[in-house]
Amino acid sequence: MNGQKKTNKILRYLVILLCILGVAFTFYIRSQKKARKAPPPPKIDCEAMVYRDLQYYAGPGASLQKHSLDIYRPPAGENLPVVVFVHGGAWTSGDKTRIANVGCAFAKKGYVAVLPNYRLSPKAKHPDHITDIARAVKWTYQNIGRYGGRADSFILGGHSAGAHLVALLALDEKYLRAGDVPPEKIKAVICISGMYKIGEKKLGNAIFSKDPKVRAEASPMTYLTKKPPPFLILYAPKDLPTLDEQAKNFAKGIEAVGGTAELQLIPNTQHPTIIGQFSDEKDQTSSAVFRFLDRISTEGLKEQKEISPNQEAD
Prior knowledge:
Layout: H1 2-37, E1 43-45, E2 48-55, E3 68-73, E4 80-86, H2 100-108, E5 112-116, H3 128-143, E6 149-159, H4 161-171, H5 174-178, E7 186-192, H6 205-208, H7 212-217, E8 231-235, H8 243-256, E9 261-265, H9 284-306, H10 309-313
Parallel strand pairs: 4-5, 4-6, 6-7, 7-8, 8-9
Antiparallel strand pairs: 1-2, 2-3, 3-5
Helix pairs in contact: 3-4
């Protein structure tokens, strides 16, 4: 008799638990459907429509802050070119809000700019940072059409640690392929004051570990084995130690495998100030960036015109 009561009690608890799970699942499904219906209302800032704190990853270990991105887009237009620009901060600090001027500048020039956050060290270790940026690009690939952008091509850009991350993402294809993003969708890469080889010095031990194999795997230079997309590589005369030589060596490495690398020193700048005035139309950094993008766009159109109808059919 006591055994029967115990069994009935357990069954009641199971029924209650199943009801709770059912209600929770229903609310989850409804929230997902609601989230897919329409983008949140934009805010107007610096002549751009701004969508803030969109969550690009909601899986295990997700962070509302670190796995979020902001979108800056022109007030009008559809099928616009897209740039994903990653903030710097030595992989340990920084935030998308600190490069709002970059988002504003791109939107003013007719681009949809995506500015993601990502997990930071010392809590995060390689490859956490690059995994997050790949997730942000995957989200962009799947959703940017709802925000006026075109999903068939992307420009990657970044400053400092962000330059390292976008270079690594463009060259080590496994991160994009893991998110079902075709690597050929990356049409150009903008690297500003980045590190392209994680050397043997103590710098970055807490981020990349002391293991030479891990440090090599985290180095964009390691993956210069075939022709990459066009690169713009900018650096400052008063940059951080070795970054000037790294920029030059990286450009040479790209050219050695048949790629295009435009290398440029931005006068009168330092590591933190090289993107500080990016939204100023007279700024040398943004001027170099938009000249480069204009050339890439022109060359792309020229290549399309040179394709014969028979080639297109093939």
